[in-house]
Amino acid sequence: MDLHAGSPARSRAVTAMILSYFAVFAYATATNDPRAVTLTELGFGVIAIAVGVMLYGQRSTAGPRSVLSVGAGSLVAGGLLNIAAVLARSSALETLSSLLVFLGVGCYVYVVWRSR
User: Fold this and answer.
1) Keywords in UniProt for this one (predicted)?
2) How high is the pLDDT of residue 89?
C-alpha cells in the first residue's frame, strides 16, 4: 500500500491549512480573541475533513471495508460534527467529534504501522 501517493498540490494545500491553523491557534491562545478561537475550531473541522478525503483517496489497494476507509470516514464525520458543534455550541457533538477524529487518526496510525 502506497500511503504517500497522491496529488502533490493537494498535499501542499493540506499542509498549508495545518500550518495556518497553528498560526491562528497561537494567536487565539495569546490574545484570547473569541473570533480567532471560533476560527480555530472551524479550521480543525475543515482540516479533519480534508485529511479524511485524502485518506479515502489512498484506499485504491485496499478493500472498501478496510481500516483506512474507516479512518477516512471517521475523520470526515468528525470534521462535520466539529463544525456542527461550533455552530450549535453543543458539547455533546464536540465530544463525539473528538472521538471520531481520534478513531480516524488511530486507524491511520495502525495502517502505517502495519504497512512497514
Assistant:
1) Membrane, Transmembrane, Transmembrane helix
2) 95
32 phi/psi in degrees, rounded to 5: 55, 35
User: Looking at the predicted structure, is the pLDDT value of residue 75 above 50?
Assistant: yes
Pick 88 or 62 by higher pLDDT: 88
Confidence of residue 2 (pLDDT cuts 50, 70, 90): very low
Locate all alpha helices (DSSP H) within 2-115, ordered by sequence. Answer: 8-31, 34-57, 67-88, 91-114
Which residue's C-alpha cell is 501517493?
Answer: 5
Put residue 89 in one of left, alpha, beta given phi > 0 → left and psi -120 to 50 → alpha.
left
Q: Are 55 and 25 in contact (CB under 8 A)?
A: no
Instruction: Determine the distance from the C-alpha atom of residue 56 to the mean position of all C-alpha atoms in its chain, rounded to a whole number.
Output: 12
Sign of CA dihedral 72, 103, 3, 6: positive
Q: Give the confidence band of 60 by pLDDT, cuts at 50, 70, 90.
A: low
